[in-house]
Amino acid sequence: MITPKIDRAFLLLVLITVCFFAPTRTQAQVQLQSFRLQQVVLLPGVFKDAQQTDEAYIIALDPDRLLAPYLTEAGLTPKKKSYGNWENTGLDGHIGGHYLSALSFMYASTNDVELNRRLDYMLAELKRCQDKIGSGYLGGTPGGTAMWKDIAQGKIEADTFSLNKKWVPLYNIHKLFAGLRDAFLIAGKTRAKVILIRLTDYIDGVSRKLTDEQIQTMLISEQGGLNEVFADVAAITGQDKYLVLARRFSHKEILNPLIQGQDHLDGLHANMQIPKAVGFQRISEVGGDADYGKAAQFFWETVVHNRSVVIGGNSVNEHFNPLNNFSKMITDIAGPETCNSYNMLKLTRHLFEKSAEVKYMDFYERVLYNHILSSQHPGTGGFVYYTSMRPRHYRVYSQPQINMWCCVGSGMENHGKYGELIYSYRQHDVYVNLFIASRLNWESEGLILSQQTKFPDRETSKILVEAVKPGTFGINIRYPNWVQAGALEIKVNGVKVALNSKPGNYVKINRIWKKGDEIELRLPMQLSTENLPDSSKYVAFLHGPIVLAAKTDTTDLDNLHADADQFGGYRARGKMYPLNLAPVLASNEKDLTKYLRPVPGKAQTFIAPELISPAKFKNLELIPFYKLHNARYMIYWEKGFQKETAN
After folding, report:
1. Measured between alpha carbons, how far is 546 from 526 in angstroms, rounded to an integer?
2. Cβ-proximal residues to 219 (8 Å cutoff; 6+ apart), any chain
3. How far is the C-alpha of 363 from the C-alpha of 496, rounded, in Å?
């Protein structure tokens, strides 16, 4: 396998960074570790296709146009005109930060020399900007240099989406911070580390002139995950002052109720809160702050179990629903925002690596297939902002030279890092977390595993030991909760393995492995239904972890590929069809899956002519939602007979 070459000293530094602040030796040993993206290569399949499509989208963007806001703010002449849309209306530069992360993930995953060249070029130009400003500051926010000088003098005027009359400048600069961190930790770029620490020192210097109360006032404004990245800098440098900065930039109005196990999230802007929780968890990991970890854990539990819909996403019009009323999820067109799921996966990864609990990977898998994978257009690579849950509505896709939304930035990152959690390790043992066609090269252990699968179209996966050092170790296979007890089948070299595990655990196969050994998995998927979180009469269908949806029609798909409208281009503005004219499920029985019949010759495709009403919709095919594009669709169905009154 060909992998990007990274300096050994850098790899040692990354290892030290991961373990530096582990509170105890025992805890460090218990936690799972992730493989580097360079160690996992995707093999042909839906995720490989999505990765390649995303790479083409990334290549289509012009680095000089993304750099223009930074050069302008530094007093340098841009080489090209800035992009429009969100990139020249106040949030200038935020996509440039995302682009650093996207390049880093995709380069690590593919070893594409063009991505490496672009990443080096971006970092060289950003360093030139930082050197020109001279203070350590770097940013694309128009007037950002002057704004931070005002803040240092205590001049702070904050609102939810503004700070000192600028459009979320803290959120904006967080994307740059995260991009620099990823360029260093993921792609091995030491120049990124230098820029990152200088920028962090600048913000630290400003913060030392402010009281805790003044910083908390600033945090009324959307800030992304600044507390997370400051904790990362503490781990990178080993300097406690950055951990102090991370704690000071943690929003106490959100943190304190979560520590007490109190959910006060109703009506709050969802994606303002999720990155804060990621930061709480990171502070807990780096500094051993138990209360911060408790807050992150409770946040995950309440969002996943009480606030997430069937695809794993959350929010309507970017805000959390009231716990007891999800009606807007059905009546509104602006369903779950992709950025929310991007950030929930970050939090999920941290919690999984801490505990190795299968429930985290079950959620991760649910979101990965049904929201993240579905949020990319398979042809153009365009990204989705809102995934509508409204019956018979549709999604809008971005265009690379036109649309610069937040979900474009996170979208470019999403499809470049599919390899991050397919496998994990603990000491000498390997964990197989996801059933995705891929190859793992664990160089230090001399182990190469390949996973050949067409899951979820087929309920099987085959793991081949391609190379291995002599010795005994365990290969741990995830036993998902969506597989019924006793249904999982595992064979090693054709011999069935007696299972002593139940769903929600890992099956450990401990033996002396040899080159050529094969593990065969059979993962039977059952049909099931899932209600909206408020237990209303709207239900969705799943096949195993895969959400099923029905294509209803392709009419009135206005702005299917988004226009340049700054605050409306990402909304599906076509006609809203009356809810009383949508197909319904003509039964109130508890088990609706008995009506679904597989369609011969079509993987994961079902029909339910006796269940779906009225008659003109009875032969609708239910297919995996991630395969459904360019159409209106049904995910949630109302149980009962067709109504008379329009909604």
Report:
1. 10
2. 158, 170, 249, 251, 253
3. 28
> DSSP string of 178-240?
HHHHHHHHTT--HHHHHHHHHHHHHHHHHHTTS-HHHHHHHTTS--TTHHHHHHHHHHHH--H
Residue of 544, 423, 455 lying closest to 37 (CA atoms)? 423
Q: Tell me how many degrees the CA angle 442-448-451 measures, rounded to the nearest 5.
A: 115
CB 228 within 8 Å of CB 278: yes
Q: What are the tokens at 156? A: 């702070």
Look up residue 158 and give its two tokens.
């904050």
Question: Tokens for 293?
Answer: 């970890």
What are the φ and ψ backbone dihedral angles of 548, each rounded to 5 degrees? Answer: -100, 140
Report the C-alpha gap between 369 and 56 in whole angstroms: 21
Q: Which residues pair with 540 in a beta bridge?
A: 530
Pairing of strands 429-432, 472-479: parallel
> Rounded CA gap, 66 and 76, in Å?
14
pLDDT in tens, 498-542: 998 899 999 999 999 999 999 999 999 999 999 999 988 999 999
The answer to whether 369 and 45 have CB atoms below 8 angstroms apart is: no
Place of tokens 């392709």: 554
State how far Cα 224 lies from the chain centre: 14
**Length reported for the chain:** 647
The answer to whether residues 629 and 561 touch, using CB atoms and an 8 Å cutoff, is no
H or E element that contains 454: none
Backbone dihedral angles phi then psi of residue 497, each to the nearest 5 degrees: -95, 130
CA atoms within 13 A on the CB side of 503: 14
pLDDT of residue 570: 97
Q: Are 519 and 533 in contact (CB under 8 A)?
A: no
> How buried is residue 62: exposed, middle or buried, by Cβ count under 10 Å (0-12/13-18/19+)?
middle
**Quick one: pLDDT band at residue 23, thresholds 50, 70, 90?**
very low
CA distances from 440 to 2, 52, 450, 462 (A): 11, 19, 6, 13
Q: In whole angstroms, what is the distance from residue 409 CA to residue 102 CA?
A: 8
Q: How far is CA 574 from CA 121, 308, 561, 562, 639, in A?
A: 41, 26, 12, 12, 26
The one-letter code for the residue type at 300 is W
CA distances from 130 to 30, 57, 197 (A): 41, 28, 12
State the amino acid at position 280 in one-letter form.
F
pLDDT reading at 593 higher than 60: yes
Beta bridge partners of 632: 553
Q: At what angle do helices 406-414 and 46-60 cross, to 10 degrees?
A: 130
CB 504 within 8 A of CB 475: no
β-pairing verdict for 162-163 and 166-167? antiparallel
DSSP secondary structure, 429-494, as one string: EEEE----SEEEEEGGGTEEEEEEE-TTTSSEEEEEEEE--SSEEEEEEEE-TTSPTTT-EEEETT
Q: Is residue 419 a contact partner of residue 106, using CB atoms and an 8 Å limit? A: no
pLDDT at 641: 60
Query: CA torsion angle for 270, 47, 55, 446 (degrees, to 10)?
Result: 110
Coil/strand/helix, residue 319: strand
Give CA separation, 579 vs 137, 325, 389, 644, 646, in Å: 52, 17, 12, 10, 6
